Every structure is written in structure tokens, then in C-alpha cells.
Amino acid sequence: MFKRILQEPLLHFVVVGSLLFFYLSSNDTETKPQVVISQGKINQLTAQYTKTRQRPPSKEELEALIDNQIREDLAFEHGVKMGLVENDSIIKRRVQQKIEFMLNDSIAGIEPSREELQAYLDAHKEQFTIAPVYSFKHIFINPGKHEDTDAFIKNLQTQNLNKIYKNSGDSMMIESEYVEISTAQIARLFGRKFAKNLDDITPGSWQGPVQSGYGLHLVKIDKKTPAHVATLDEMEASIKRDYRVETQKKAIDSFYDELRTQYSVTVEKEAQ
User: Fold this and answer.
1) First and final CA of the chain: distance in angstroms?
2) Which residue, 65, 69, 130, 171, shows the most beta carbons closer than 10 Å to its own?
3) CA-to-CA distance for 146 and 95, rounded, in angstroms?
4) pLDDT given for residue 54 in this prediction
5) Residues in contact with 272: Cβ distance below 8 Å, sequence separation at least 6, in sequence order
6) Closest by alpha carbon to 179, among 222, 147, 216, 130?
7) What is the DSSP string of 175-200?
8) What is the tally of structural domains in the chain?
9) Domain span at residue 104?
10) What's the whole-number mean pLDDT along residues 193-201?
């Protein structure tokens, strides 16, 4: 009978729990560390429960949530005392992420002034250069459909292309005219080589042929807005986003630089 009792798993659990409690009690200091469940934390627990269950918790359910949070905090604090956290890379990484999240979150709420954004724009002009924008017409020529492509093109060039460009050349699934289209959009439609070659075309007259991924094109550029550094009004949202990202990075770097001064950091390396 006594032997069977000794083999019971519950008894083992009680014994281990008692030993663990003894260990923790023997390491108590005169000043007990505090575990505080703030009103903010209670609100967070309530919000999480409400989101999951689609209703707020009852009084008893909220008390259970708080009790579970107390147990979680107590277990973590004692785990730290026992050295369980010391070499746990997952917990370390989670704590690091939480600290950096708090730093980022605090900065995200800061609204930079226009002067700060303008200074950032001035220091990063290459990041905010707007590519050329074109308004142009084109006539597509598919070399595979003509025995003498050069002769076909020369014949087109003798005509009033401004009047016939929509119905001339070979058919394709792309519009014959574009207004205020960026080089990035042109590259997606016609290919990078075609977009790049537009830089060499003087606006105002039909020129070409210009090669694309489809074939050849006679092109007339009606208007070209050259590449230029964006103004704050043109790209304020993007400038503000990048400003905040860089500010957050600098804040985190500064935080770790300051933190290192409070510790003696040693990196052990094998002898070469």
C-alpha cells in the first residue's frame, strides 16, 4: 500500500512543488519584489477577452483573467530568480522586441514639423526624385507582318500622322495615346528600353522608330516634365513615413548605446 502511494504521480508533483517553493522561499530578500496589475493591464485583458468572445467578461471571468495574469507575472519573476530566463534566447528576443516596440510606438505618435520634414527632404534628395512624366502618341509597327519594314515606315512618315495615328500601323492591345504617364508606368507597358529611349526624343515631332518589347514605334512626345526633386507638398506622406522610420532607428541605436554604458560587455573569442 505505502509503496503504491509512493508511485502516485500526484505525490511526485506535490513533492517537487514543495521543493520548488522551498527553493524560492530560501532566496527571498527582505524587500519583496512587487507584481502590479495596473488598471491599464486590466483594460487590456478586458479588451482582449471582448475581442475574442464578442462580449465583455463577467465579474467572475475578469477576476479569473486577473488571477491568471498574476500567476503569469509571478512565474516569470521567479523564473528570472532561478536563472531560467538567462539563457533562453526566445524569451530574450521577445523582451527585446517588446522594448523596441515601445520605443517605436512612442515615436510614432510624434508629429514632425514641416521644418523637420523639409530638412529631411533636403538631406535625402536622391530618395525623393520624381522621374520624368510624358504625354505622347505612338504608332506600332510589327516587323513580322511586313516584308519591307523600312519601306512601310517611310511610307507612314510621308503622311499626316497627327490625323491618322489612331488608325495607322499594326494593331496591339495598348492605347495609342497616353497623358501624364510616368517612366515607371511606361516601362511596365512597353519595357525599360522603350522608356529609356524616350529621353532621347525631342518633344513636338514624330520620331523613331523606337524599339519596345513588342516591336517598333513611331513616337511623338507632346509634353515632357523632366525629372525633379519632389517638393514637400508632392510627397509629404512618403517623406513623413521615411522620416519616422529613420527617427525610430536612431532612437533604438541611441537606446542601446546608452544601455551599453551601464554594463560591462565582454565578447569572448577563440584564440586565433
Assistant:
1) 64
2) 65
3) 69
4) 92
5) none
6) 222
7) -SEEEEEEHHHHHHHH-HHHHHHGGG
8) 3
9) 88-128+230-261
10) 86
Q: How confident is the model at residue 143 (pLDDT cuts 50, 70, 90)?
A: confident
Looking at residue 213, the DSSP 8-state letter turns out to be: S
Do residues 117 and 239 both lie within one domain?
A: yes
Q: Is there a single domain that holds both residue 167 and residue 102?
A: no
Question: At 240, is the secondary structure helix, strand, or coil?
Answer: helix
In the sheet that 177-182 helps form, which strands lie side by side, from edge to edge?
Answer: 177-182, 133-141, 216-225, 206-211
54-65 residue pLDDT tens: 999 999 999 898
More confident residue, 23 or 96: 96
How far is residue 86's CA from residue 172's CA, in Å, rounded to a whole number? 67
Residue 271 falls within a domain, yes or no? no
Q: Is residue 165 part of a domain?
A: yes
Whether residues 155 and 236 fall in one domain: no
Closest of 206, 213, 215 to residue 186, by C-alpha: 213
Please state the φ and ψ torsions of residue 37, each to the nearest 5 degrees.
-100, 100
Percent of the chain with pLDDT over 90: 14
Question: Measured at the alpha carbon of residue 47, what is the angle toward residues 41 and 48, in degrees to the nearest 5?
Answer: 90
7 pLDDT above the threshold of 80: no
27: left (phi over 0), alpha (psi -120 to 50) or beta: alpha
Answer for the pair 135, 175: CB distance below 8 angstroms, yes or no.
no
124-136 b/e (C-beta count within 10 Å ≥ 16 → b): eeeebebbbbbbb
Grid look-up 511623338 returns: 220
Reported as a single tens digit per residue, the pLDDT across 49-99 is 999 999 999 999 998 988 888 888 888 777 777 777 777 788 888 888 888
Task: Answer yes or no: is pLDDT of 11 > 80.
Answer: no
Phi, psi (deg, nearest 5) at residue 85: -90, -20
Paired sense of beta strands 133-141 and 177-182, if any: antiparallel
